[in-house]
Amino acid sequence: MRLCLSFVSILLLAAVPPLAAPADSPEGIFEHTRSVYAALTSYSDSGTVTKEYTATSQDKYNFATHFNRAPRHFIFDFNKPSGDRIVVWGDPDAFHVWWKATTQVTDYPNPKNTGAITLNSYPTADSITKIVPLLYAKAGLPGALAHFEPSRVTGMEDVGGGKCYRLEGASGDVYGGTGKKVNVRNVTVWIDSSSSLVRKIIEEAPASPGMLNRVTTTFDPQANPPLSEDLFKFAPPKVS
């Protein structure tokens, strides 16, 4: 009888699911943010990305994102101070990329369309792989937030006019075949406590003495805004 009771106890314990992370824990806050992005029907932002090399040397770029889930429409517009520009846009049939420096348009038809995002991570200073992997959660796209592991909440701060959770942790790039993580860096994320949208990301990697390896990306995000069809129309300028 005692053996039977012990066996039943083991079965009951095995049936109990693991406890979820508390909603106010770093994991709970970030997982809620993931779920918010994955459920958005539309999204829009404008932002900046600043890459710092020393205390006095940096590059700064601007970008804007517009997204509609159904029917699928997407456009990401990245601009450099030099005048160079990269536009990635998507429709229900394919994604497309135009790069001003090369004047070329590259098409990525379904279903092999993720290269439009992943292959343009470096040319856009990784800005295209910050929020887009959260919007297309099922695509498994890489990015700083796709692999972000928050370890602590270090307070509340005002960013872009909103009260934000300040989450600190780490991220890295993961090899799909082996799962090995490389390019590990410290990551701080500011998440709006009202909308649960990301307003700021700072990534810091090891650097040589006297140098910096810091990337700051800021966002002015909107959840489920009404978006005109005209926002998604892009015609590459004709080469004269």
Question: Which structural traits does this protein have?
Answer:
240 residues, alpha+beta, outer membrane lipoprotein receptor (LolB), chain A, 11 strands
Explain what the structure shows:
- The protein has 240 residues and is of the alpha+beta class.
- The protein has one domain (22-221): outer membrane lipoprotein receptor (LolB), chain A (Clam).
- Helices cover 15% and strands 42% of the residues.
- The protein is built from 4 helices and 11 strands, in the order H-H-E-E-E-E-E-E-H-H-E-E-E-E-E.
- The chain has an 11-stranded antiparallel beta sheet.
- Strand 4 and strand 5 (94-99) form a beta hairpin.
- The longest helix has 14 residues, at 2-15.
- The radius of gyration is 21 Å and the shape is globular.
- The termini are far apart.
- The relative contact order is 0.17.
- The model is unreliable at 1-19 (pLDDT under 50).
Q: What pattern of helices and strands is seen along the backbone?
A: HHEEEEEEHHEEEEE
Query: What strand line-up does the widest sheet have?
Result: 6-5-4-3-2-1-11-10-9-8-7
Q: Give the second-level CATH assignment, the architecture.
A: Clam
The number of helical segments is 4
Spatial separation of the terminal alpha carbons: 90 Å
Question: Largest beta sheet, briefly?
Answer: 11 strands, antiparallel
**Structural class of the helix and strand makeup?**
alpha+beta
User: What does the overall shape look like?
Assistant: globular
Uncertain residue ranges? 1-19
Q: Number of domains in the coordinates?
A: 1
CATH C-level class is Mainly Beta
Into which percentage range does the β-strand content fall? Answer: 35-45%
